[in-house]
Amino acid sequence: MKAVLQRVANARVDIAGSTVGAIGAGLLVLLCAERGDTDALADRMLAKILKLRIFSDEAGKMNLSVQDIGGGLLVVSQFTLAADASGGNRPSFTQAAPPDEGRRLYEYFVAQARAVHPVVATGEFGADMQVHLLNDGPVTIPLQMAA
Is omega for the bond preceding 99 within 30 degrees of 0, making it cis? Predict the structure, then answer.
């Protein structure tokens, strides 16, 4: 499972001109399920995201988590994180989970996040989305969890 986290002042997802998910300060989570990923792996990814200390404390040091600041999560499915461009100029996405399994893992991740974190917004799996964000820092962190 892969994710790219962006610390944001605010972020939103629009579909066909309408906002479907939005947060204030927090994390934009671009999430990719790969072949062989499991619920347990999604649980580990979520735990890491919630505890990752990438928000500034009073001294300006990255020492606080999204939980510590009461920030939001905006979770957006992003199968293109599984891209392999090593073989040519057109990326291959064969490592991405098949659509049904990708959707299931994405929905599982979101349900688990909502069960333990008060502010969770989403995009829509498989939709043509426009993601708007004000990156704070900028701080962008790639994460990968392997079985």
Answer: no
| Phi/psi of residue 51, nearest 5 degrees | -105, -5
For residue 79, what is the DSSP state? G
- Cα separation of 80 and 84, whole Å? 9
Catalytic residue among 19, 80, 94, 144: 80
Q: Judge whether 93 counts as a catalytic residue.
A: no
pLDDT digit string (tens) for 63-93? 999 999 999 999 999 999 999 999 999 999 9
Of 118, 128, 145, the residue nearest 24 (C-alpha): 118
Q: Which residue, chain included where needed, has tokens 């934009």?
A: 28
Domains annotated for the chain, with CATH where assigned, are 2-85+92-140 (3.50.80.10)
pTM of the model: 0.96
Among the listed residues 55, 79, 109, 125, the single catalytic one is: 79
What per-residue confidence (pLDDT) applies to 147?
A: 77
Q: What is the pLDDT of residues 16-70, one digit of tens each?
A: 999 999 999 999 999 999 999 999 999 999 999 999 999 999 999 999 999 999 9
95 is catalytic: no
Catalytic residue among 78, 109, 122, 125: 78
Judge whether 130 counts as a catalytic residue: no
